Amino acid sequence: MSPLLLGVVVAGYLLILAGLAYKAWRETHTGSDYLVAGRQSHPFVMAMSYGATFVSTSAIIGFGGAAAVFGMGLLWLTFLTIFVGIFVAFVFFGRRTRVMGANLNAHTFPEFIGLRFQSRGLQGAAGLLIFAAMPLYAAVVLMGGGKFISQILAVDYQMALLVLTLIVAVYVVMGGLKGVMYTDAFQGSIMFAGMVTLLVFTYYRLGGVTQAHERLTGMKELAVSMFGAKGHTGWTSFPAFMSEYWLVVVTTIILGVGIGVLAQPQLIVRFMTVRSDRELNRAVLIGGVFILVAVGVAFIVGPLANVFFYYENPATQGQIALLAAGKQVDAIIPLYIGQAMPQWFAAIFMVTMLSAAMSTLSSQFHTMGTSLGRDLYEGALGRKGNSLLINKVAVFSAIVLSYALASALPVFFEGGTAIIAHGTAIFFGICAAAFLPMYFGAIYFRGMTRAGAWAGFAAGTLASLFWIFFVHIKESKSLMLCKALFGVDSLAGETLWTVVDPLVVALPLSILATVVGNLYGAKIPVRHLAHCFRGIARPARRAPVNASLPLTGGVPAAD
C-alpha cells in the first residue's frame, strides 16, 4: 500500500472528524445537550448513528470471520437485525420510548427505567450492570480496530490501540452525544460506501455472482470432511439441526445478537434524541438499508473468502480461509483485504474499519460514562454538582477502563479464539435477559410493578452470569472459576449444553420472574402512570418535547 495514499486518506478522515467534533463542542452547553443531543437530531443523523453504533468492527471482522467458518447461514442474522433491530425497535419501541422519555425528562436508559418505576435503586443497578458489563464489549471492539490497524500498517498492536483510543476520547469527552452522533453519521456513510465497494470487488475477483457462489457450493465435500462431525454441511447451507455448529450459530450469533439489539442502552437512548415520531418513521428506511449493506456484505464476503484462498491465491492454494489465517478467525477478513483487494482499496477499507470501530466505541464510552456519572453518582447516590463536568469525568474514566481491558484481553484469551464475536454476543445476551422484559413492561403495561421489574432484572442478570461462568464453555473455560471451584471447565460436562448461549436460558427465566414478581408488588400510583403514558395512547405524530427542561437530580419518589 502506498504510504502517501494512506496518509492522505487518513489525514482527510481525521480532519473531517475534528471539524465535526468542534461543531458538537460549540453546540453543547447543557446536560441535555451532552446526554441526549438536545432532543433535536435530524432523522438521517439519528438513523446512521443508530446503525453505525450497532455495526462495529466485531460485526465486520469478527462476524465476517465467523461467517468464513460457519457459512452463509449467518445471513439470517442480517434478516433478524433488520426486522427486529430496525422495524420492531423503531415502530414498537421507539415511539413509546421517545414520548415517555420526554414526559419523564429521562436522559439515559437506566434513568428512564428508574423514573418509570420510581426507583433510584433500579436506576443505579441498571447503571452498574452497564458499567460493569459494557467494558468487555468496548474492549473487544477496541481489539478489532487495533488488530486491523496493526496488521495493515505493520505497527505494534498496543501502539495502534492507544492511538485509536485517544482519537475517540477527544470527541466523546468534548461533544458528548452530539459529538458521537455527528461523527457516527459521517462514519456510517463511509462504512456504507466501503462495504458496497468490497462486495462489488469480491464478485469481480471471483468471476461474478453466479460463478462465485457455485464455486463455494462446490466446496461442500471439503467442508463436510473437515467440520462434518460438528454439523457443517457446506458454506452455502445451514449447519445440521441441533449439531454443535447449529447451536452456536442459532443461539449465540443469531438469537444472541438479533434479540439482544432490542435492549441495548446505547441504542435505546437514540430514540430520545429526536423531536417527533415523523423523524423516527423516516429513520426506519435509512437504518434498514444501512444494516442490510453493512451487516449483509460481511456475511457474504466471509464465506466467499474460502474460494479466494483455496483457488485464487497462489500463496494459500489448497487452504480454506481459516487455515490461511493461521486458525485465527478474526484475522480472516483483514488477510482477505490485504491479499485479494487492490492496494488503494486497503486504504479505503482501513478508514471503513476505523469508522466502524470508532462509531461503536464512541457510543459505548458515552453510555458507560453516563451510567457512572448520571445513573450511579447523581441518580442512585444522589450527589450534586456540575452535571456536565461530572459526566465528562465519568466518560473519561470509562475510556481508561476499556483501554486497560483491551490491552490485557489478547493475553488472557489466546490467539485463535473468536473472542471478538463472542464478546459482542455476551453483552447483547446479558442486556436482553436483564433489561428486555422490564423495558417492554415499562412502555406497554401500566400495571407493571417495581417488584416485577426488579425480579426480571435480577433473574436475567444472575442466570446470564451463572451460564457464562459455569456452563458456556467458550467463557467458562477461559474464566477458570468453574475449574477452580468444581475441577471441570463446564458443569454441563461433554453435553451440547456447553454451546447453548446464556440468552436461551436467561431470557425465559427473566420473563417468568417478571410475571411472578408482578403478582406480589405494590401498584405504581395512577397519577404517575398518567404522567408516564401521556401522549402514548393516541397517535400523536408530534408530541411536544421541551428540550430546555433542567436535569433532574433523582426520581419522583424513592424506593
Describe the structure.
With 559 residues, the chain is mainly alpha-helical. It has 23 helices and no strands. Helix 3 (43-54) packs parallel to helix 13 (277-312).
Could you outline the blueprint of secondary structure elements for this entry?
Layout: H1 3-27, H2 31-36, H3 43-54, H4 57-70, H5 75-104, H6 109-116, H7 120-153, H8 157-205, H9 209-217, H10 220-227, H11 244-260, H12 265-268, H13 277-312, H14 321-324, H15 332-340, H16 343-380, H17 387-412, H18 419-444, H19 450-470, H20 473-479, H21 481-486, H22 502-520, H23 526-532
> For the residues shown, what is the average pLDDT?
85
Number of helices: 23
Work out the oligomeric state of the chains in this entry.
single chain
User: What is the rounded distance between the termini?
Assistant: 60 Å
Q: Which value, in Å, is the CA radius of gyration? A: 23 Å
Could you tell me the strand content as a percent range? under 5%
Identify low-pLDDT runs: 540-558
Class derived from helix and strand content: mainly alpha
Question: Mind describing the biggest β-sheet?
Answer: none
How many extended strands? 0
The helical percent reads over 70%
Series of secondary-structure elements, N-terminal to C-terminal: HHHHHHHHHHHHHHHHHHHHHHH
- Per the principal axes of the C-alpha atoms, what is the gross shape? globular
